[in-house]
Amino acid sequence: MRTTSMSEYYNVSDIFGVNVFNDNVMKERLPKKVYQKLHETIQDSSELDLETADIIAHEMKEWAIEQGATHYTHWFQPLTGVTAEKHDSFITSPDAQGKVLMSFSGKELIKGEPDASSFPSGGLRATCEARGYTAWDCTSFAFVRHDAAGATLCIPTAFCSYTGEALDQKTPLLRSMQAINEQSLRLIRLFGNTTSRKVTPSVGAEQEYFLIDKEKYLKRKDLIYTGRTLFGSMPAKGQEMNDHYFGSIRPRIAAFMKDVNTELWKLGVPAKTQHNEVAPAQHELAPIFETCNMATDHNHLVMEILKKTANEHGLQCLLHEKPFDGVNGSGKHDNWSLTTDDGINLLDPGKHPHDNKQFQLVLTCIMKAVDRHADLLRVSAADVGNDHRLGADEAPPAIVSMFLGTQLESIIEQLIENGVATHTPKGEMLKTGVDSLPDFMRDATDRNRTSPFAFTGNKFEFRMVGAQDSISMPNVILNTIVAEAFKEACDELEQADDFDMALSAYLRKLAKEHQRIIFNGDGYSNEWVKEAGRRGLPNIRTMVEAIPALTTPKAVELFGKFNVFNESELQSRAEILYEIYAKAVNIEARAMINITHKTLIPSVIKYVTSLANSINAVKAACGCDISVQTELLTESSSLLSQARKALQALETATDAGLAMNAGKEQAEYYSENVTAAMTALRAPIDKLEIMVDKSMWPMPSYGDLIFEV
Ligand code: ADP
Ligand code: MG
User: Fold this and answer.
1) How far apart are the first and last CA of the chain?
2) Which atom of ligand 1 is closest in space to residue 273's alpha carbon?
3) Distance between CA atoms of residues 359 and 507, nearest Å
4) Could you tell me the sign of the dihedral formed by the alpha carbons of 542, 548, 552, 557, in that order?
């Protein structure tokens, strides 16, 4: 187990990015011409010739070897949800004298060929057609990772099939970034900007996670196999006192966080904030925002480093969306904005949003995009674990809506009224009532923690994403749906004879047509569910219900138009999601069955036997009152037989599910029948946990897990 010693204190700027082949390193090491060429490729998405790639590969290898690297890997993001890699060493075949060289060619840098047959493809490729390619993404920096395997040069890559179809998270993300770039440039040109050359989505992902003691974790087979507890009753104290949220961070956790930050900084991940979250044992980490693509890669690194560092500290990091029933789960907030290469944020309303027409067009287009494609945003946050979280009074509801706050809502209302906004409500002075404290301007808009899609000053925050999911798909959707709305606006406004008049009419139309997506109230309330129904907003409760959104004619048209996904890619993704869902629930059900058979029922039998023995012994000894033991015995025996019946029902349901063909129907079956059978088994077991002698219960309780870290 690691603790921090004084000698480990360092200057952050000395270590930041030391393991990254970043722009500075490239500038320093590459010949000027090569560096410029690479820059052009990154800026303009032009193609890189093999000669240039050879020189870059050589320098990259030399640099990596200086960092201790012996191997390189094309690091990619297949649709399994985690990253994948296959390692090759740099050595060439030994020469006649038995000596090897370390080599790395441009070809090896830009293209890899892992066997694709074992990665999910959703029917895009038959297993016999195993070819898949990884292609270097030069817009995300290569880095050297140090772990038990030594040091490895990791090259971020996209992963495609033999026929060029995307088999990963990165390819569509890069495609969607091209789409939003093109349409955003058109939009800003409308307002006279002729100087910005590129518009890139900026993304900052806040990551929530739980930390529990490793030894206790190892005693919970449910956590080991499924990432969440399948049994467990709430301890006497939960999170009701809110004393963990933003509470001071205990030394064991602080030492962990310090090591996480150090590792991340070395990898060039700008880890910025850390705090305790609402639930006991829950924490959050947020880096500073970066380009969408880097932020997505870096979020994968954050998840990896959290897990690895926890291990080194005798802890286990849980990234599951709902590790503990009855305790807040974990999500990810995807903060999103659009930034030009010369530093203009298109989502910055400025001091006077009522005068900022460009911002008004951006905002109303985003309203249109979110309203029209709420179902796609919903499916981008669909995850087996998130089904336990969304709409459960702790995370946004399953209904997508937008929070704008009083200031911007007033602008929208003015636009609806007469097509122009003439004033902006201002923040007031905040008076603390204490002379020695400064009075300051209050923000014009409060925060709303219950909204799934909230405007927060100069960005939108999409809060539905699951804690263990890649943020790729949410950003693919955001980039593409906003690109579409921008395109439609530009198609119309570029043709206008009188731009100001046309713009005013257009803003008014969008504001009016899509006002229904705005909701500033309490998203957790039942009233909102009813109100959203009246407004005709979709309420898509589960992952399985969300998946069909991917393949509607509306989605096929949208993604086809911007070359983000073709129809077969969409269908394959839907298939993969159905399959992932059924498999995950099947594993959970099997784990429940095993644990119940092997440890829970035997423990309860021991307990009821001890009660029976006690009854007999006490009766024989003195004939005293045995009513308590008898009551406990009756109750626990009855719960035991309920559990036994529920167990058999779960076995039957799971067997039937397994016998079905993979796909929509099977997923629906698991979602409806198997999950219900799981709940039915859990109920008597959780009641028994409260009754049974603690020393006889075969696994640590919720209290042990979340209050004793
Ligand atoms: P809050 O959610 O409390 O407003 P922050 O302001 O710290 O918290 O932002 C949370 C995340 O949003 C961080 O990752 C931050 O870097 C990111 N962020 C801040 N500004 C932007 C922006 N313009 N575009 C995208 N992400 C941003
Ligand atoms: Mg936030």
Assistant:
1) 14
2) 7
3) 11
4) positive
pTM metric for this prediction: 0.93
* Closest to 577 in 3D by CA, of 552, 553, 555, 545: 545
Whether 26 lines ligand 1, by a CB cut-off of 6 Å, is: no
Q: Is the CB of 456 under 6 A from ligand 1?
A: yes
* Token pair for 357: 């027409």
Whether 475 is in the pocket of ligand 1, judged by its Cβ within 6 Å, is no
Q: Which of 291, 293, 335 to mutate to test the pocket of ligand 1 (most atoms within 8 A of CB)?
A: 335
Phi, psi of 42 (to 5 degrees): -70, -45
| 463 Cβ below 6 A of ligand 1 | no
Instruction: Say how far apart CA 47 and CA 31 lie, in whole Å.
Output: 18
Q: Are 179 and 562 in contact (CB under 8 A)?
A: yes
**Quick one: which ligand is closest to 333's CA?**
2
Count Cα neighbours of 131 within 13 Å in the Cβ-side half-sphere: 5
Report the pLDDT value the prediction gives residue 125, as an integer from 0 to 100.
Answer: 58
Q: Is the CB of 271 under 6 A from ligand 1?
A: no
Structure tokens at 179: 């789409």
DSSP assignment, residue 697? -
pLDDT at 6: 46
pLDDT tens digits, 577-621: 999 999 999 999 999 999 999 999 999 999 999 999 999 999 999
Helix axes 627-659, 601-622, angle to 10 degrees: 160
Ligand 1 nearest-atom number relative to CA 336 = 25
Name the nearest CA neighbour of 313 among 251, 270, 238, 228.
Answer: 251
Question: What pLDDT, on the 0 to 100 scale, is given for residue 121?
Answer: 78
| Stretches in the chain below the pLDDT threshold 50 | 4, 6, 127-128
Give φ, ψ of 250 to 5 degrees.
-65, 155
Q: Is 288 in the pocket of ligand 1 (CB under 6 A)?
A: yes
Q: What is the spatial distance between Cα 583 and Cα 605, in angstroms, rounded to a whole number?
A: 32
| Amino acid at residue number 299 | N
Using CA of residue 700, residue 701, residue 706, residue 709, what is the dihedral sign?
negative
Question: Residue 472: CB within 6 Å of ligand 1?
Answer: no
d(CA 550, CA 570): 6
Could you give the 3-state DSSP secondary structure of residue 476?
helix
Cα(288) to ligand 1 centroid in Å equals 7
Residue 323 has which token pair? 């590790």
CB contact at 8 A, 294 and 472? no
> Can you give the pLDDT at residue 122?
74
Backbone angles phi, psi at 337, to 5 degrees: -150, 180
* CB of 451 shorter than 6 A to ligand 1: no
Encoded amino acid at 32, one letter: K
Instruction: Please tell me if the CB atom of residue 274 comes closer than 6 angstroms to any atom of ligand 1.
Output: no
Question: Probe ligand 1: pick from 180, 199, 203, 459, max atoms within 8 Å of CB?
Answer: 459
Q: Are 635 and 512 in contact (CB under 8 A)?
A: no
| pLDDT for the residue numbered 439 | 61
| DSSP output for 33-85 | HHHHHHHHHHHH-PPPPHHHHHHHHHHHHHHHHHTTEEEEEEEB-BTTSS-B-
Residue 285 CA to residue 209 CA, distance in Å, equals: 8
Q: Give the per-residue pLDDT at 467.
A: 97
What's the pLDDT at 204? 98
